[in-house]
């Protein structure tokens, strides 16, 4: 991977996840394995512990569990987090969606379409996915999908 490509990935992650997102996800170009599309764009970014993210055609990252864990370690709560309790933990861990009924709290800055870290109330990562509701209202809703889970911790 070239230095320009590495800086570009970090810049895109900083834009999407806020300051420090690029550093949290991408430690160094020598630690990453990047696959490219036929046109040469970065597509999948892997590290030794798994898939960090997929770089979409829209210029946004879709997190993998490895990337979710890195963001969880790098950012203090509630940033990018949706917190659930014991009742829904086994289902979300299997990769099922997180419903608003079970959300205890969420980052109020989350918007529908943002990448979200679904976290147990004890602080460990259960899944990564896409927010379907605004974070400011997730714990207020009684019905509906809060996070469309892309990958559960047991997938």
Description of the molecule:
- The chain is of the alpha+beta class and 155 residues long.
- The protein has helices at 3-17, 21-25, 65-74, 89-93, 135-138; strands at residues 33-36, 42-47, 50-55, 61-63, 81-84, 98-99, 103-106, 115-120, 125-131, 145-152.
- The strands form 2 sheets. The chain has a 6-stranded mixed sheet. The protein has a 4-stranded antiparallel sheet with strand order 1-2-3-4.
- Strand 3 and strand 4 (61-63) form a beta hairpin.
- The longest helix is centred in the N-terminal third of the chain and has 15 residues, at 3-17.
- The chain is elongated.
- 35% of the residues are buried.
- The mean pLDDT is 93.
- Residues 80-154 form the PUA domain.
List keywords for this structure.
alpha+beta, 2 domains, 155 residues, six-stranded mixed β-sheet, Archaeosine Trna-guanine Transglycosylase, Chain: A, domain 4, single chain
Helix-strand blueprint:
Blueprint: H1 3-17, H2 21-25, E1 33-36, E2 42-47, E3 50-55, E4 61-63, H3 65-74, E5 81-84, H4 89-93, E6 98-99, E7 103-106, E8 115-120, E9 125-131, H5 135-138, E10 145-152
What is the compact description of this entry?
By secondary structure, this protein is α+β, with helices and mostly antiparallel strands.
Number of helices: 5
Task: Give the rounded overall mean pLDDT.
Answer: 93
Computed CA radius of gyration, to the nearest angstrom: 15 Å
Low-confidence stretches: none
Order of helices and strands: HHEEEEHEHEEEEHE
CATH topology category name of the largest domain: Archaeosine Trna-guanine Transglycosylase, Chain: A, domain 4
Shape: elongated
List the strand order in the largest sheet. Answer: 6-10-9-8-5-7
CATH superfamily of the largest domain: PUA domain
| Helix/sheet category | alpha+beta
What about the largest sheet? Answer: 6 strands, mixed
The percentage helix is 25-40%
